[in-house]
Amino acid sequence: MVKSPKRYPEMREPRARPRYVGPATFFRAPHSETCEDVDIGVIGVPFDGGVTHRPGARHGPRAVREQSTLIRRVNQATGVDPFALARVVDLGDAWVEEPFELTAALGEIEEFFLAVRSAGVVPLSVGGDHSISLPILRAVANGGPLGMVHIDAHCDTGDDYLGSRFHHGAPFRRAVEEGLLDPRRVIQIGVRGSLGAADAWAFSYESGMRVVPIEEFSDRGWRWAADEARRVVGQGPAYLTFDIDSLDPAYAPGTGTPEAGGLTTLEAQRLLRELRGVDFVGADLVEVSPPFDSAGLTALNAANLLFEILCLHAEARQARGAAGPAPA
Ligand code: MN
Ligand code: MN
After folding, report:
1. What's the pLDDT score for residue 324?
2. How far is the CA of 59 from the centre of ligand 2 (A)?
3. Burial letters for 62-85: b for 16+ Cβ neighbours within 10 Å, e otherwise?
4. Do 27 and 67 meet the contact criterion of CB atoms below 8 Å apart?
5. What is the number of the ligand closest to the CA of 133?
6. In the chain, which residue ranges form alpha helices assigned H by DSSP?
7. Which ligand is nearest to the CA of 156?
8. In terms of Cα–Cα distance, which of 168, 143, 185 is closest to 48?
């Protein structure tokens, strides 16, 4: 039996229903499996074949969808209503048919995002582990290297590990090698933790990336870090990648490689809000691992940070002169 509201007919509109009913989608946005009439596509990438320690990020998209049901329309701090600026749609999952074949899996993810990009849709992805950023960048870089704001406890510019070139500790080294990122327009914020070797992140420094260790962030603050990010990335197109392990494990226990002494959720929110004006062309939020997520806190914080990221992309898209939704 199909439920058809009688007393409150406006509740036929998906976003007007009680927020706890029906299958969960990102932000309770409509779900579609085509890119027609979509400006910003929110996409799950339930793949964690690139993790080096605790797994589980393949369950991240579902948990973030569930927790995002509490997200409302308007950003109270900036006044931005992303759903008025762009047609936001849950495009489902870029799921992988051969999850045990790592390079083939990354190829499948790239193929999905090529279709999204060629339809002119701005992709916001929810991982999945951080290895998914490489195939997404291959699809969205569109011929030219991008700048990037990267918020993470780790630089993810390592080299081969356990016999593989592709894992969640190396995607941005590979992206530079493949000409997808301009390292001089990349900033990495929140870096910390014990190292396998003193020069573990040498590639970041030697290639010219701006690395902001957590100590510098702690001394100078989120507002300075945002200014620095805007300076480094400049005017050109940029990608945004947010690893939830950048947050302190107190705020994000549900992740594969937690590192003590990280950002608060509020610092991350305020840092993201200060990035208005950057020409973002896509983003991902990765490494939410629900099996380690007591009380759903990590996924809840991820959903709130994804909303900040959505607001940035809705504004950036508008600034590029793209049309918004037709007036109702
Ligand atoms: Mn990390
Ligand atoms: Mn990472």
Report:
1. 76
2. 17
3. bbbbbbbbebeeebeeeebebbeb
4. no
5. 2
6. 60-67, 82-85, 102-118, 133-140, 171-177, 202-207, 214-233, 265-273, 297-319
7. 2
8. 168
Given a contact cutoff of 8 angstroms between Cβ atoms, the answer to whether 127 and 287 are in contact is yes
Q: Length of the chain, please?
A: 328
* Residue 21 counted as domain residue: no
Mean pLDDT of the 284-297 span:
97
Task: Give pLDDT tens digits for 261-284.
Answer: 999 999 999 999 999 999 999 999
Cβ(153)–Cβ(114) below 8 Å: no
Contacts of 216 (CB under 8 A, 6+ apart): none
- What's the chain's average pLDDT? 96
**Cβ count near 315 (within 10 Å):** 20
Query: Residue 203 is part of which domain span?
Result: 37-319
Please tell me the total count of domains within the chain: 1
Contact 241, 149 (CB under 8 A): yes
Ligand 1 centroid – CA 46 distance (Å): 17
pLDDT tens-digit readout, 25-83: 999 999 999 999 999 999 999 999 999 999 999 999 999 999 999 999 999 999 999 99
Whether residue 328 is predicted with pLDDT greater than 80 in this model: the reply is no
Q: Is residue 327 part of a domain?
A: no
Assign residue 255 the CATH number of its domain.
3.40.800.10
pLDDT reading at 104 higher than 80: yes
User: Is the pLDDT score of 142 beyond 90?
Assistant: no
Task: For residues 119 and 285, give the distance between their C-alpha atoms in angstroms, rounded to a whole number.
Answer: 22
Distance CA 190, CA 61 (A): 23
Query: Does residue 275 lie within any of the structural domains?
Result: yes
On whether residue 252 sits in a domain, the answer given is: yes
* pLDDT band per the 50, 70, 90 thresholds, residue 94: very high
Distance 30 CA to ligand 2 centre (A): 29
Return d(Cα 29, Cα 54) in angstroms, integer: 31
